[in-house]
């Protein structure tokens, strides 16, 4: 049942561009994106994400009927491109200038190469879906390829990406919120050993906490559309600062820092993570045969945006560029304040959407005889505990670049590169040529090497940051 969630979110997203009649058909529960799977477009405008539950559709007849009602494929080519861009763009773009400056200007070849690679794996996800009309989600493909174990592994990585994405969102909130409210709010309780920044983050998360108790998320799902707007706003702000902001740029970007490539590779990969939602974009298309064109167009646009933003940020701020470009922008410029507010508000709107896949799976495992009040209490209670766990981890490990890099290397490489190629080889083996088999096997090997090197590098950097913080 939960596997249909992302498909319903895609329709929710598409309803923003359809007629009023379609808008009124927005479903009542939504999920991320896998930034996030990221189960869905409304939830993930994310990198995940929107991650999906692992239980099968059809377990609840009422749910099945609702799925059929909203199951019509209505997305045009343009709508599908917008959906995919909205899924890809977001949190990852904030770190591209930092990654480029640390890896050297030639590391842009890695950025572009990963974009091409992920566009290809999006293409073969479509091929896997062509093979089985019953496959609707990323987990379905995993099950088709490797049985129930494939579904379990896919679901596990999807939920890991959701969790780490929420931690990264909360760290970003913690980093940007003091700049938005700097000089206005000073929150400090003498009996709590928390800084003003930490107290502001706690209050912001507590403000967002009640949204986890909502059963009907359609009233806030439209906010996910702000993901694209926020990303374009940040890009426009950096461009405006480069031209009119009075920042003296012309910082020389090193050609290559090979020793830092494993660490930044996770940042680059996370920026292209969104494959868990691609099956839902495919099934929502009126003409699925154009899915490959949608993938190529979307990745080309996103790669161009990332590359331009990376060079502008690195050129403007050089070695001083922050892991989030918004933290480097001149604070007194109005455009900067708008970009900061957008960066702060986005995480607060993501919590309920990102939690939806957990909530849906949880509810499906509760006895049917249980009343709706008890279900709501359990759903909201579990969600609150998980969000407080995310908050605690974000406050304990407030190192955005390392957590994001670790997420990209540990989880996103598998979801975006390794798994699609493995699924494709298993499902389409009989019709693949030897060069095609060798090519996909090579991508799997490359993905594994990238994942191991990146995970080791980012985890070591995270440990060093923690040790330095404790030594002071």
Quick overview of this protein structure:
The chain crosses the membrane at residues 77-96, 108-129, 150-171, 191-213, 220-243, 263-282, 294-318, 338-360, 381-400, 406-425, 437-463. The protein is built from 18 helices and no strands. With 472 residues, the chain is mostly helical.
Keywords:
18 helices; 472 residues; AA_transpt_TM; transmembrane helix; membrane; Amino acid/polyamine transporter I; L-amino acid transmembrane transporter activity; mainly alpha; disordered N terminus; Amino acid transporter transmembrane domain-containing protein
Walk me through the topology.
Elements: H1 5-14, H2 20-23, H3 41-44, H4 61-69, H5 77-88, H6 96-103, H7 108-131, H8 138-181, H9 196-208, H10 218-221, H11 226-244, H12 261-271, H13 278-284, H14 291-317, H15 334-364, H16 372-396, H17 400-428, H18 434-471
Helix pairs in contact: 1-13, 5-14, 6-12, 6-14, 7-14, 7-17, 8-9, 8-15, 8-16, 8-17, 9-15, 9-16, 11-14, 11-15, 12-17, 12-18, 15-16, 17-18
Membrane topology: Multi-pass membrane protein
Transmembrane segments: 77-96, 108-129, 150-171, 191-213, 220-243, 263-282, 294-318, 338-360, 381-400, 406-425, 437-463
Protein name: Amino acid transporter transmembrane domain-containing protein
């Amino acid at each position: 049942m939960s596997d249909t969630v992302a498909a319903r979110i895609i329709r929710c997203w598409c309803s923003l561009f359809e007629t009023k009649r379609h808008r009124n058909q927005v479903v009542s529960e939504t999920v991320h994106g896998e930034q996030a799977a990221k189960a869905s477009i409304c939830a993930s405008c994310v990198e995940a994400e929107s991650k999906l539950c692992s239980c099968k559709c059809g377990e609840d007849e009422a749910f099945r009927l609702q799925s059929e009602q909203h199951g019509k494929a209505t997305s045009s080519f343009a709508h599908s491109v917008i959906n995919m861009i909205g899924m890809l763009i977001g949190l990852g773009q904030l770190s591209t200038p930092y990654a480029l400056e640390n890896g050297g200007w030639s590391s842009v070849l890695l950025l572009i190469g990963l974009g091409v690679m992920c566009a290809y794996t999006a293409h073969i996800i479509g091929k896997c879906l062509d093979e089985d009309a019953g496959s609707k989600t990323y987990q379905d493909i995993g099950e088709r390829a490797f049985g129930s174990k494939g579904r379990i592994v896919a679901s596990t990585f999807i939920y890991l990406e959701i969790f780490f994405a929420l931690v990264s969102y909360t760290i970003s909130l913690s980093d940007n919120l003091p700049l938005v409210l700097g000089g206005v709010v000073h929150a400090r309780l003498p009996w709590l050993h928390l800084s003003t920044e930490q107290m502001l983050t706690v209050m912001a998360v507590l403000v967002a906490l009640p949204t986890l108790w909502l059963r009907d998320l359609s009233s806030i799902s439209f906010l996910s559309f702000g993901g694209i707007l926020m990303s374009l706003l940040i890009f426009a702000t950096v461009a405006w600062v480069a031209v009119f902001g009075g920042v003296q740029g012309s910082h020389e970007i090193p050609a290559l820092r090979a020793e830092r490539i494993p660490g930044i590779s996770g940042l680059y990969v996370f920026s292209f993570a969104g494959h868990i939602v691609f099956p839902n974009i495919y099934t929502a298309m009126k003409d699925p045969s154009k899915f490959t064109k949608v993938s190529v167009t979307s990745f080309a646009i996103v790669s161009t945006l990332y590359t331009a933003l990376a060079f502008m940020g690195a050129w403007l701020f050089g070695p001083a560029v922050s892991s989030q470009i918004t933290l480097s922008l001149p604070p007194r410029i109005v455009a900067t304040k708008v970009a900061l507010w957008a960066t702060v508000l986005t995480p607060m709107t993501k919590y309920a959407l990102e939690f939806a896949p957990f909530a849906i799976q949880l509810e499906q495992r509760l006895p049917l005889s249980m009343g709706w009040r008890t279900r709501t209490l359990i759903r909201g209670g579990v969600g609150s505990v998980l969000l407080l766990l995310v908050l605690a981890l974000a406050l304990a490990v407030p190192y955005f670049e390392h957590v994001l890099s670790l997420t990209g290397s540990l989880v996103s490489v598998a979801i975006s590169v390794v798994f699609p190629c493995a699924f494709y080889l298993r499902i389409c083996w009989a019709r693949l040529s030897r060069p095609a088999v060798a090519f996909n096997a090579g991508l799997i090997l490359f993905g594994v090497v990238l994942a191991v090197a990146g995970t080791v590098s980012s985890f070591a950097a995270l440990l060093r940051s923690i040790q330095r913080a404790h030594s002071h």
